[in-house]
Design brief:
302 residues; alpha/beta; Rossmann fold; 8-stranded mixed β-sheet; 7 helices; globular; hydrolase activity; Dienelactone hydrolase family protein; Dienelactn_hydro; hydrolase; Dienelactone_hydrolase-like
Length: 302
């Protein structure tokens, strides 16, 4: 069984991938590197939904994006789902289906397609290479292309767009809400807030991090963090809270689950915490609803 407690994944000495976990990952579509042998991931049915992989026209090429949406007429609010370092694997697709069953259009772009598919790889050095190849500029450009795609779709309500992301995608969520005006609200799940040390994963010069741009936040974000996260110290969380307060950014908040680990929402990992995951999920939905990103029938109660 793998214990994944860091934003970038485990270190080599943490890894003890069983044959059962590897087989489950390959045939179930989950990230090979992080699947727990004892996991029982949530499987959300697609009945009543339209699910498909579309092609989004980015600046340099078309990129695939998984879409799940209600199989009904009308326009629906949108949530862009930003993946972890493991890419758009079954956990991310299931998250999209969960949102679609609530009445959202959920779309998960593949930001890593240019360099590879990290979900199929058990060597973290190779995953690191793939993820590091996705520059700030490329990621924001892909988000712009995704938003542009959505604005042309008759099923999407372009006036009601939110964004959420996990791990690597949590940091992207903060940055998107700091840099772009298209999103009315964001929900960042245990995304790194401050720059890593030089030489560490994603620690290369030139990348910006959420705490650096807190004063530019254009949409309120709810941050969902773990008290026992080995890669995101609580000092960073408190510094982000202070930065938001100093910038007078109302509507944003950060929730910390003191007994949870990084990845507590990821039901295919050993770090999954169902109680914290359920609470944080409903807090996310309530945050979206409070800021105008909600389906007509949604009631923010657990």
């Amino acid at each position: 069984m793998i214990t994944l407690t860091r934003p970038e994944g485990t270190k080599p000495e943490d890894l003890n991938l069983s044959r059962r976990a590897l087989a489950g990952a390959v045939f179930g579509g989950y990230a090979v590197y992080a699947l727990s042998a004892s996991a029982e991931p949530i499987t959300t049915p697609a009945d009543g939904l339209i699910t498909e992989t579309v092609q989004v026209a980015a600046s340099d090429r078309a990129i695939p994006a998984f879409v799940a949406r209600p199989a009904a007429k009308g326009r629906f609010p949108v949530v862009v789902v930003v993946c972890e370092v493991f890419g758009v694997h079954e956990y991310i697709r299931d998250t999209c289906r969960r949102l679609a069953r609530l009445g959202y259009v959920a779309i998960a772009p593949d930001f890593f397609v240019r360099a590879g598919d990290p979900s199929t790889i058990s060597d973290f050095a190779e995953i690191r290479r793939i993820v590091s190849a996705a520059s700030d500029g490329q990621v924001m450009g892909d988000l712009d292309a995704t938003v542009a795609f959505l604005k042309t779709q008759k099923y999407a309500d372009k006036s009601k767009m939110g964004i959420t992301g996990f791990c690597w995608g949590g940091a992207v969520t903060w940055l998107a809400c700091e840099r772009r005006k298209d999103f009315k609200a964001g929900a960042a799940w245990y995304g790194r807030l401050a720059a890593p040390k030089p030489g560490d994963f994603l620690g290369e010069p030139g990348r910006q991090w959420p705490i650096q741009l807190a004063g530019e936040l254009k949409a309120p974000v709810i941050g969902l963090y773990a008290g026992k996260d080995a890669g995101i110290p609580l000092a960073d969380v408190e510094a982000m809270r202070a930065a938001l307060l100093a910038a007078r950014k109302k509507g944003s908040e950060i929730i910390v689950y003191p007994d949870s680990q990084h990845g507590f929402h990821a039901d295919y990992r050993a770090s999954y915490d169902p109680k914290a995951a359920a609470d944080a999920w409903w807090r996310m939905l309530a945050h979206f609803a409070a800021h105008g990103v909600k389906p007509k029938a949604f009631k923010p109660t657990a």
